[in-house]
Design a protein that fits this description.
single chain, alpha/beta, Rossmann fold, 6 helices, globular, SAM-dependent_MTases_sf, Tellurite resistance protein TehB
Length: about 180
C-alpha cells in the first residue's frame, strides 16, 4: 500500500536506522561465504553491505524509496522494490535468507521454500513481552515466545535465544535471534 511506502520514507527521514550489522549476522558471515542471499526488509543496507563486500550477491527487498536509493548504490546488491504486505513473487532459491527487525508471518512459507538445501536462515526480531519498552506497540508485529522454534522446526536450529536488548535510547525490548539450516 502506498501509505506504507510513505510511512517508511518518513521513518527513514526522521529516524535513520542503525548502520551497524547485527552480531547474529557477523557471527555467520564466514559460513555464508560468497553465496546468493535474500535480505527481507533490507532497510538502508546494514546487512547487505558486509555481505556484498565479501562477494555475495544480495537481493535486497525494500518498499521505501529512500532505502531503495541507498541499496542501489551498493555494488553486488540488487534492490527489489516490493510491498511485502501485498505479495512476494520470488522465483529464485538462496544460500542464505535474512530477516531482521521485521515480521510478516505470511513470509514463513517463502523462507522455507526459497532456502536451498544447506542454506542458512538468520531471523531476528522483537518478541511480545509485558516488560518491552522499545518494541513495536502492535502485537501483530511481535513474535510469540518460542514462535520461531515452532514455525521453523523442519530446519536444523543452530542457535536460538530470546534475550533483552537495550536500544540506543535506553529502552529495553525482548528480541528473538535464530540461526537455522535447511538440511535437505
Amino acid at each position: 500500500m502506498i501509505e506504507d511506502k510513505i510511512k517508511w520514507n518518513d521513518k527513514y527521514k526522521s529516524a535513520p536506522p542503525a548502520q551497524k550489522p547485527s552480531p547474529l549476522l557477523l557471527a555467520y558471515l564466514e559460513r555464508i561465504g560468497r553465496g546468493e542471499v535474500l535480505d527481507i526488509a533490507a532497510g538502508m543496507g546494514r546487512h547487505a553491505k558486509p555481505l556484498a563486500a565479501q562477494g555475495c550477491h544480495v537481493d535486497a527487498i525494500e518498499w521505501s524509496d529512500l532505502a531503495l536509493e541507498a541499496l542501489e548504490k551498493i555494488p553486488g546488491v540488487s534492490a527489489i522494490e516490493m510491498d511485502l504486505e501485498e505479495a512476494c513473487g520470488l522465483k529464485k532459491r538462496y544460500d542464505a535468507i535474512l530477516c531482521f527487525n521485521y515480521l510478516n508471518r505470511n513470509l514463513y512459507p517463502l523462507m522455507l521454500t526459497h532456502l536451498k538445501p544447506g542454506g542458512l536462515l538468520l531471523f531476528e526480531t522483537f518478541v511480545q513481552d509485558d516488560a518491552n519498552e522499545g518494541a513495536p506497540g502492535n502485537p501483530f508485529f511481535l513474535l510469540e515466545k518460542n514462535e520461531l522454534l515452532h514455525v521453523f522446526c523442519s530446519l536444523y536450529i543452530i542457535e536460538y535465544k530470546e534475550s533483552y536488548i537495550r536500544k540506543p535510547n535506553g529502552q529495553k525490548a525482548l528480541m528473538a535471534s535464530m540461526a537455522a539450516q535447511k538440511l535437505h
